[in-house]
Amino acid sequence: MSDPPMLGRGYLEAALDHSPETTSAPEPGIQAAAPGTDVPQAGGGSHEHRWLILAVVGIAQLMVVLDATIVNIALPSAQKDLGFTNGNRQWVVTAYALAFGSLLLLGGRIADLVGRKAVFLAGLAGFALASALGGTATSFGMLVGARALQGLFGALLAPAALSLLTTTFTDPRERAKAFGIYGAIAGAGGAVGLLLGGVLTEYLDWRWCLYVNVLFAAVAMIGGARLLHAGKPTDRPKLDVPGTLLVSAGLFCIVYGFSNAETSSWSDTKTWGFLVVGAVLLVGFAWWEKRAEHPLLPLRVVLDRNRGASYLAMFIAGAGMFGVFLFLTYYLQEILDYSPIKTGLAFLPMVAVMVVMSVVTTNYLVPKLGPKPIVPLGMALASAGMAWLTALGLDSNYAQHVLPPLLMAGLGLGMIFATAMNLATSGVAARDAGVASAMVNTSQQVGGSIGTALLNTLATSAATNYLVGKQPTAQVQAQASMESYSTAYWWSAGFFAIGFVVTLALYRRGVPTQQAEGQAVHM
Length: 523
Known about the structure:
mainly alpha; two-stranded antiparallel ribbon; 2 domains
């Protein structure tokens, strides 16, 4: 990797002045070469500012990912300010998850249809406006509406960002570096959100947890407008309207059903009813995609073994990692009496390990060994880290008892996210890059929604069962909380253990090399 000449000016300024020479997508037919060879760049451009494009895309992705957790820290203050009930509080989170999770595949296809730069910038602008609206909210309804709009524009933004990365980095060696960094951002964004939310809430105001997105979006929009190549795709698919309606409604019902399980019982009609309807709609979607002339999600995208395994890995990791972010946050604040800022700082070592491991994995391990030993090993390490956390007690301390399993989980997650994100979009034809990227985000988002609901329900049941027949003293209440956390860690370890088996069985042996038309050749 070599930087462009400085010529007596700043790197960013020089890049912006030469932005017309860049391009964001390879021409059809350009094939990614095997490691060690040079790759001709699309459209005559040299992609000389591709690393700045990575920075722009990374900022956008960080904004979307951290928004899933940053608002959690602000909820108590927002509730006090706007006066909504505990029962309504979940909708501030759920509104975002519903819109985001159900519309991601549509957002990815729109990027393929309209053009990734246009959709990327529109997503940024809409996300910024929705965030500003939420920051100025004067009522509960206004806040929830703004969160739903954030989810809608996030569903446009996230797949466009990842597909831009997919089509910008065509050299396998540079692609590995780029996806290592991007995977680390996607995996660590939740922890960054906790830290940033704590800082903003404690030193400014809960509204800044939303206003801060305007700053992120402004930086990304300036860079994206100047660096990204404009133009509509030359090989544009048509929009599959029936497929879009089926999958959007199906994902909405699935996310809503699991979200409702957090506050209602599994026997509640709003829980199992929506889950059943969602499952039926998704089965109908799969049936339709086999017959559609222009399918929303072409089966060629998901039936490749490495890509399919990568989508499942993102789904399982999305479900399991909430055992770290959600319940360890509770433990640090409620048991160890950490402030929101100190809680966020406690996660930083794990974030650092994830970043380093993501880059090492995609640059050195996968090119030599392939994904089959790497992702399953990551699942095993994450599972071991979760199981280790079950040993925490009321008298545990951070350095001796929390940090070691946190670092182990970080190692595993770093190996999973970067590798899975890379292979989930590797070898996909340019016309399918948007929807393939959307599947990555959909897998992680739906997995996270399901994981949160399941772990919350199981943890609550464990605490309730522990309290049966006991006097609710402070000590007993604290021990009940520990039982709930331990239950969540064990189930999270189980998720990753399942991920170990699934990815070990599905990933192909050997080092894959990519081709432009959506197939993969395996050495």
